[in-house]
Amino acid sequence: MKFSSLFLLIVISTFIYNTVAAQITVDLKQQGKPLQPLWAHFGYDEPNYTYMKDGKKLLSEIAALSPVPVYVRCHNLLTTGDGTAALKWGSTNAYTEDEKGNPVYDWHIVDSIFDTYIQRGMKPLAEIGFMPEALSTHPQPYRHYWKPGVKYDSIYTGWAYPPNDYKKWGELVYQWVKHSILRYGEAEVKSWLWEVWNEPNISYWKGTEEEYFMIYDYAADAVKRALPAARVGGPATTGPGWDKAAAWLKDFLLHCAEGKNYATGKKGAPLDFISFHAKGSPKVVDGHVQMNMSPQVNDVAKGFEIVNASSYKRLPIYITECDPEGCAACGMATNPENAYRNGTLYSSYTASSFARIYDLAARYKVNLAGLTNWSFEFENQKWFDGFRDLATNGIDKPVLNVFRMYGLMQGNKIIVENTNQIPLDSILKNSVHGSSADIHALAGADKNTAAIMVWNYYDADVLNEASPVTVTIKNIPAKKILLQHYRIDKDHSNAYEAWKQMGSPQNITDEQYKQLEQAGQLQLLNSPEWLNTANGEAVIHFSLPRQAVSLLRLTYQ
């Protein structure tokens, strides 16, 4: 009898523990600083996808979801080649030389890329790289033919080496900026960002640290000579959480502040913003994917710490790649740990990780200006092949709808009270591996709207019961509000699940395409409804499945 009573008590206690409502409170009077649109930054390796069919479609959708101009960053803008698109590859043929070694500039492919952005009201985050074949100290082999499953290091060919003539390198950058001014106007180009190279602390740069400082100095000097008001920065190093990477970032900042400039001979180098990268580390555990946010947020924290200890603590910081792991073109067939990318694990991870980076920026009091989601699309690939992309064959994945949700959040950041949240320090140490999921929220409000994004995130891609959530909004300046409840879960805003219900076809009919296109859009959980407030307060109850994201959008007069 005692055993039965104890067993019943355990069952009841477990049920209560698993179903206790997450109590989230948002007081609209507790407003902080403006909720910066850090998320309005995207990037990818393959520049030639930009002006292709699905590339243009996706860029149009990204531009449409944002109330502010979106910044777009891509590799290979100076790489030599005929513009053929391939995985981890792209080219523009911007620089070649004639038989006498004189520079020949050809901007038509670069123009096709930037025209596509400008036509949509987007801004280039112009990555100055990679090394043209005619300038490379080790030009052969140059073009690589990497594909998933092939050794990753095979991509690092002649484009990754220092220039054989630094003055020609500087002149190339100068001519690029001058051409951009002639084509788009000085006012437009002043609004861009110019970033020198990508991840020079790893094999993307086959020179030394000092040689990177040299290409930086010549490039930054060239940008400023062409347009003194232009913004230039770097070093776009990856993984500040690693000791060697941290040293690289510190050395670069010290060089810009106090070192001898290789281009001018003067002290220091121009630096208008600081950039670095932060990545997570998923793996397969017991047959399922288990994410790991800890390395990513620790990279961010360490980067902030380094900046605060430098002469540049006030400068804008751009995390120009901010992702769950490091290889967008490595699909789940060759890298099973990347199977998170098609469904809601990716979208909930993004909601949770970006919100925690907002918190880190506040903790370190840094000027964080952007988080670049390094995912775009891959033309002419299999449907839902597990690439880190926002859309597949023109059909949006659930993760893109997180950014649509962010696009609906404006105004000032609102303090969120949530006694059941996982503390930031715990996520820095252990990610979300423990017994509890990360059910938390990010909120913002302006004069006539408020938006609360709520997610139910857990590292392990395993099924679990939905959790009850109660959101209390206080000090609403209206007696009546219109509530729109948007949702990303298995049944909403999820083209991947719709595709699987079709039988996972690789040959899609026109009718199926239309159905998937609709399923890929951000959807309401239920019809919009008017709610009466009581003493300026509204209480909203709902159930939130594991790996789901909700956006509560309140409109009032």
Automatic annotation (TrEMBL):
The active site is at 199 (proton donor). One of its GO terms (molecular function) is hydrolase activity, hydrolyzing O-glycosyl compounds. Residues 1-21 form the signal peptide. One of its GO terms (biological process) is carbohydrate metabolic process. It comes from the Bacteria. Keywords: Glycosidase, Hydrolase, Signal. Residues 23-519 form the Glycosyl hydrolases family 39 N-terminal catalytic domain. Belongs to the glycosyl hydrolase 39 family. This is Beta-xylosidase. It comes from Panacibacter ginsenosidivorans. The lineage of its organism: Bacteria, Pseudomonadati, Bacteroidota, Chitinophagia, Chitinophagales.
